[in-house]
Amino acid sequence: MRAWVYKVNSRGQGGVRDWHFDQYFRYRGRQRFEMGGAERIRSPSSWACLRRVRAGDLFFCYQSDERKLYGLARAAGPGYESLPGLGRYDSIDFRPGGLRLKNPVGVSHPQAREVFRHVRAFTVPSRGTIHAVATDELRAVLRQLVAFNPDQRQAILRFAKSRP
Questions:
Q1: Residue 147 DSSP SS3
Q2: pLDDT in tens, 13-42
Q3: pTM, rounded to two decimals
Q4: Among 59, 84, 119, 131, which residue has the fewest nearby CB atoms (within 10 Å)?
Q5: For residue 55, which of 71, 32, 78 has the smallest C-alpha distance?
């Protein structure tokens, strides 16, 4: 299993509110939840990451304009091209039933800043929507999620360890 950070920004063009991870966490359907697409994922580094994603991979859901981690999700399948044949892996489907954190974790919060400044996906500048998370970074981020959400400790650890 691999781990990834998926970044979204709720501010669309012209400052209009666009998309927020709560839309995924409120989803109650049984079908896969489509993420990305040619309009949203335009970075070659993100395309390369999505090419490596497999079913069951863990995603940290990061709202970049708020600088907060909102929860965890699992890939429903591999990354794919929204427009087949272009070689741009710009889409991924999440399984329904992600884990929404009761207390989203601010990466710039004084108690978390020291940890997150060593996680490449959260360093500045950090371009792209999808970022790979190394094993040591995975453990550090999970510790922070638990520290800010102690009543969700079991759920966080169970979700992170679950397999496809």
A1: helix
A2: 665 567 899 999 999 999 999 999 988 899
A3: 0.93
A4: 84
A5: 78
